[in-house]
Design brief:
Radius of gyration: 24 Å
Shape: globular
Distance between the termini: 7 Å
Largest sheet: none
Number of helices: 15
Number of strands: 0
Length: 336
C-alpha cells in the first residue's frame, strides 16, 4: 500500500510538471505583449524595456523557465498584468467563494444522488427506475447556463422565493458586520453565531448551488445504479436475503459499501471539473468566485492569472484523483 501511494504521488508530480511546462511555454509563445499591459498603452520605449526587465522577459526562454520553477516552489505565481498584485493573493481572495459553492453542491449531490441511484437499482425497470434514469440523463445533459436562467425565472421572477444573485442582500452588506475568517460566508457566519446572516447567505447560495450540483447528482445516481445492479446479483446478497436480513440493511450496509469505490472516483474527478468550470454560473449569479476572476483574466489576456487558475485546477484534479485512488486501493479486493 505504501509503495502504491508513493508511486501515485510521483506520477502525479510528473503530470503537474507537464502542466506547468506546457502552460509556461504557451504563455511565452502566444503574441500578447505583456510588457505593454504592464507599463500601459502609452508607455515609452524606456518604460517598456524596464517592464521587460521586471517581468524577466529580457532573459532567454530556458532561463525564464528555471526562474519560474523556482518561484513556483516558493508559492509565487507571479503578478497580474492588470492589477500588478500577486496572483497568489488574488486567488486566495476568490477561491473560498467558489470552494464554498462547490462543496455545498457536492453535499447535495451525495445526499440526493446516492439514494436515487440505490432505489433506481432496487426498482429496476419499474417506474421509479425509468424516472430516475430520465432525470440523471437530463441532469448531465442540460446546459448549465440554461439551468441557471431557468431557475432564476422560476424562483425569482415567478415565485419570488429566492434572490437572483450575489452572496448577500444589500441590507446585510450595508448594515451587518460581515465576518471574514475563512472566506466561506456560511462557515464564517456559523462560527460567529450570526444566524440571520447565515440564513441570508444560504438563500443566496441556493440557486447557484442547485445549478452546479445538477451534473454531479446525475453522475452519482447513474454510477451508483450501474454498480449496484451488478452487486445485487452476487451470491452474498442472495444469501443475506435468505437469512432474512432486511432489504434496507442489504442495500445500505452490504451492497452500497462494495459499490462506493467506482462512485468515489467519478465524484472526485467531477468535483475537480466543477471547481474550475463555474464561469457561466458565477457570471449569471454575480458570484465573486474564481470563475469571474478567470473570465476577466481571459478577456484581458492576463497570462499570469490564467496560468495561476490553470495550475490550481490541475492541482485539484491531481489531489482529488489521488484521494480517490487511495480510497479504492484500501479495498482488500483490489490488487495493487
Amino acid at each position: 500500500m505504501f509503495k502504491y501511494i508513493v508511486k501515485r504521488i510521483l506520477s502525479s508530480l510528473i503530470v503537474l510538471l507537464g502542466v506547468i511546462t506546457i502552460t509556461f511555454f504557451i504563455a511565452r509563445v502566444l503574441p500578447s505583449n505583456p510588457e505593454v499591459k504592464w507599463a500601459g498603452q502609452r508607455a515609452t520605449e524606456e518604460q517598456l524595456e524596464q517592464a521587460r526587465i521586471e517581468l524577466g522577459l529580457n532573459k532567454s526562454l530556458p532561463e525564464q523557465y528555471v526562474i519560474y520553477l523556482g518561484e513556483l516552489l516558493r508559492g509565487d505565481l507571479g503578478r497580474s498584468l492588470n492589477t500588478h498584485q500577486p496572483v497568489t493573493d488574488e486567488l486566495a481572495r476568490y477561491i473560498p467563494a467558489t470552494l464554498e459553492l462547490v462543496v455545498l453542491a457536492f453535499i447535495f449531490a451525495i445526499i440526493i444522488g446516492i439514494p436515487l441511484g440505490i432505489y433506481s437499482a432496487k426498482k429496476k425497470d419499474r417506474f421509479l427506475d425509468h424516472a430516475g434514469r430520465i432525470f440523471s440523463i437530463g441532469a448531465v445533459s442540460l446546459p448549465t447556463f440554461w439551468v441557471a436562467l431557468f431557475l432564476q425565472l422560476i424562483f425569482y421572477k415567478t415565485l419570488n422565493l429566492l434572490p437572483i444573485g450575489g452572496r448577500l442582500s444589500v441590507e446585510s452588506t450595508i448594515f451587518a458586520n460581515v465576518p471574514d475568517i475563512t472566506g466561506m460566508l456560511l462557515l464564517d457566519t456559523l462560527l460567529t453565531g450570526q444566524f440571520d446572516l447565515f440564513a441570508d447567505a444560504f438563500r443566496h447560495i441556493l440557486l447557484p448551488c442547485l445549478t452546479i450540483s445538477l451534473y454531479p447528482i446525475g453522475l452519482v445516481s447513474r454510477m451508483t445504479r450501474s454498480a449496484l445492479l451488478e452487486i445485487l446479483g452476487e451470491d452474498y446478497i442472495t444469501a443475506g436475503r435468505s437469512y432474512g436480513l432486511s432489504e434496507v440493511r442489504i442495500l445500505w450496509k452490504y451492497a452500497l459499501k462494495n459499490s462506493i469505490g467506482t462512485t468515489a472516483t467519478d465524484v472526485a474527478l467531477s468535483m475537480g471539473y466543477t471547481l474550475t468550470n463555474t464561469f457561466l454560473v458565477e457570471a449569471i449569479f454575480s458570484w465573486p468566485g474564481i470563475g469571474s476572476y478567470i473570465s476577466n483574466a481571459v478577456t484581458t489576456l492576463d497570462f499570469p492569472a490564467i496560468i495561476g487558475v490553470t495550475l490550481f485546477g490541475a492541482v485539484c484534479y491531481i489531489v482529488l484523483n489521488l484521494i480517490a485512488d487511495i480510497f479504492v486501493a484500501s479495498d482488500p479486493r483490489v490488487r495493487l
